[in-house]
Amino acid sequence: DFGHSSELAFVVEPSDDIAVQEQPLILYCQVEGIQPITITWRKNGVMILDSENAFMLANGSLYVSHFQRVRGDGSSDEGEYDCMAQNHYGLVVSRKAKIQAATMSDFHIHPQNAVVEEGGVARFQCQIHGLPEPVILWHKNSMPVNTDNERYTLLPKGVLQITGLRAEDSGIFHCVATNIANVKFSREARLTVSGSHSTVYKDPMILVGPENLTLTVHQTAVLECIATGNPRPIVSWSRLDGRPIGVEGIQVLGTGNLMISDLTVQHSGIYVCAANKPGTRVRRTAQGSLVVQAPAEFVQHPQSISRPVGTTAIFTCVAQGEPPPQITWLRNGQILETSDHIKLKNNNSTLSIYGINQADEAIYQCLAENSAGSTQASARLTVLWADGLPSPPQGVKAETVSATTIQVSWEKPLQNTKEIIGYVLHIRKAADPIEMEYQEAVSKSTFQQLVTDLEPSTSYSFYIKAYTSRGASKASEVTVVSTLGEVPAMPSLFIKVINSTTVQATWEPSIKLGQHKGFKLYYRKVHLSQYTGPVLLASNVTAYNITHLDASVVYEVKLLAYNQHGDGNSTVRFVSLRETVERTVLNPPCDCMKDEQNNKTSTTGIIIGIHIGVTCIIFCILFLMFGYRGRLLMCKNVQEQLSTPQIPRSQRSTTGLVLNGATRRDRDDRDLNGKQLDMNELERLFPASPSQEQQEKGIMSAHSPSAPHDETQISTLPLDEFSITEEQPDPLPKKPRGSSPAAPAPNHGPANEG
To answer: Which residue ranges have biased composition labelled Polar residues (predicted)?
Structure first.
């Protein structure tokens, strides 16, 4: 029995009914459960006392002997009835049964006379209201219409259609309405069929289209559509949303009426009737809406549960219907009032009872109701309680540790502590509903808990329960404490070098910074201990230029965000402007004004450049010619000196010393000296400019008295000195020519000697 508690539940509930005036009425109610069970009845929420007119039968049903729509005192037996059953476990209430009196009004639409040409369409209609819905039949000439005739179509709402009219269809028509309350006859109407079938063309036309209908599932819907035209139009149906109508339960009545049997919610929609001229696209349309309602029914019933004292009980009740049903909860037959520990959520589908106690033990009912009907389901809550449970923990204290941490401490209960297996700390934001509470379990030997991951500047409530294998103690006293405020997070900092004396500090706004009043910017030379700053910046500022910097040192830049709780952690960056200065020297900036002025004299510059180039070419040619001639003369003189006999050192000329650069060995060393001259020929012709240190070393080697006489010293001459010496027409002289630049003074070494 889904949705029923085994201790007390309904087997049969009263149902909606239509009662006949002065006739007896029975409302059924049958209950099962643990005896004794007491059954009572209510009408419109008021208890019904036994009387001669209404009393309860032995099986719990209600008997109304003479149903009266209106009694002499103005009261009525119409209304909503429900049955209540109670035992020592609780009380349950049945669904509400709507009782109405059977009635029938007068006809408010009567059939009208009609004259229609042969082959046309005739339509008669009569309407009348009644409970239950009257059944309408048609009579022709005081005789029931032959429904076997395919040209005659009777629709449930009191419509008679006659197609393909013939002369024998003429006559007098009226309708008869019948239900359990009465039988009534409409006025008469005459049908006249005139002339013969016309062949004149007529556009298709819809005489009557579908009307808007609201029905309940499993009922039958008839959508009327009757059309005329010549040739006779073809009637078709479709849905406005494009979905297929389907074939199951679908039937066409007459020449175009659509009947849908055993309605479901999926049949709801807008239906379009189209009258089409055969063989063409000429058409006329009419539309009507169909709304199918479904009474409330349960998808998930609440289940009976047992829970220890102090825990949470949750009942779930899910219902569906069209329109969507409203859910109401009852506790022992009374509307359930929500409170701090009783909450309804998910459109009342979930009932949560927090921190339950013995007073919460009851039968809880879920009532689902909409315009198509109602239903109910019940479940029982059993609260488990054991003797000897611990008393509540004592001395609960909460101390703030940081912006996200609180330390909670307590003392053991005063009574029944031997069976304690642990404690449970209940945590909740003070501003949140109780269902947002969460718990942390703690061992029995622990009397403090560090609660982390809390929100800054937020109040939290705490209480403790001691648990045993048989249940939990009552809750301790609740303590409320707030976390500290939190300083902002570290900002993201970027440094951009603008020029040799300026850098730009930029940072990104972020929600991670939290609430902050602004930023503080510091900077310093890295070798100094003192910062420049702080530079206070507003919270919406994201960049700052630091100017007048020294390009030769490295700077440290520091940025932090601050709020009313203090300064946050800083972000540090280091920056050097040296590379920027070097790039500026290597790549000087463009002087556009100067370039513009230079452009004006570009023609003159080109001419001067050509002259300079030609001059350089001429000098290069002369240089090569003299250099080649000087090389030939030098080689000739060397060969003559090598063939000259030995003479004493004192008689040697200075020029010869300079050319040879050292004292010659005996005759056997001539070849070696000659080879060394050949190998260093290019060096003697085009000497490199030696450093000052090399020149001084060369002088010492040539004139040091301690130098051995057999060591070969090689000297070089500048090209200009050598060329001047070789331009003399005479052969190598036997005595020095002091006037020659190639023979320096004895106290001076050669300038380019290596």
So the answer is: 643-657
Residue 586: predicted pLDDT? 52
pTM: 0.56
DSSP string over 571-594: EEEEEE-HHHHHHHHHSPPP-HHH
More confident site: 429 or 488: 429
Q: Are 549 and 495 in contact (CB under 8 A)?
A: no
Architecture of domain 494-577: Sandwich (2.60)
CATH superfamily, region 9-101: Immunoglobulins (2.60.40.10)
Q: Is 249 helix (H, G, I), strand (E, B) or coil?
A: coil
Inter-CA distances, 596 with 575, 584, 591, 592, Å: 37, 21, 9, 6
Is-contact 236 293, C-beta < 8 A? no
Q: Does position 344 have pLDDT exceeding 90, yes or no? A: yes
C-alpha distance from residue 478 to each of 394, 425, 435, 440 (Å): 11, 11, 16, 15
Q: Is 658 helix (H, G, I), strand (E, B) or coil?
A: helix
Q: Which two tokens stand for residue 670?
A: 């001539």
CB 170 within 8 A of CB 192: yes
> Angle formed by the axes of helices 719-726 and 602-643, to 10°?
60
Return the pLDDT at 632: 55
Which amino acid, one-letter code, is at 630? Answer: G
pLDDT-derived band of residue 352, with 50, 70 and 90 as boundaries?
A: very high
Burial of 580 (0-12, 13-18, 19+ CB in 10 A): middle
DSSP string, 340-365: SSEEEETTTTEEEE-S--GGG-EEEE
The pLDDT of residue 736: 42
Write down the pLDDT at residue 591: 52
Residue 491 one-letter amino acid: P
**In this structure, which topology does domain 393-482 adopt according to CATH?**
Immunoglobulin-like (2.60.40)
Average pLDDT over residues 475-486: 89
Q: Is the pLDDT of residue 342 over 50?
A: yes
- Residue 598 gets the label, from left (phi > 0), alpha (psi -120 to 50) or beta, of alpha
Tokens of 325: 């049903």
DSSP 8-state symbol, 109: B
Q: Is the pLDDT of residue 353 over 70?
A: yes
Q: Which of 371-380, 512-521, 640-649, 705-714 has the lowest mean pLDDT?
A: 705-714
- Count CB atoms within 10 A of the CB of residue 543: 11
Superfamily of domain 301-384: Immunoglobulins (2.60.40.10)
Domain extents in the chain:
9-101, 105-215+223-246, 301-384, 393-482, 494-577
Per residue in 3-21, pLDDT (tens digit) is 455 678 899 999 999 999 9
pLDDT band at 162 (very low <50, low <70, confident <90, very high): very high
Find tokens 């409170």 and name the residue: 339
In the CATH scheme, what is the code of domain 105-215+223-246?
2.60.40.10
CA distance 607 to 65: 136
Residue-averaged pLDDT of the chain = 81
| Residues 6+ positions from 7 with CB-CB distance below 8 Å | 33, 34, 87, 89, 90, 304, 363, 380
Q: Please indicate whether the domains covering 9-101 and 105-215+223-246 agree at the CATH topology level.
A: yes
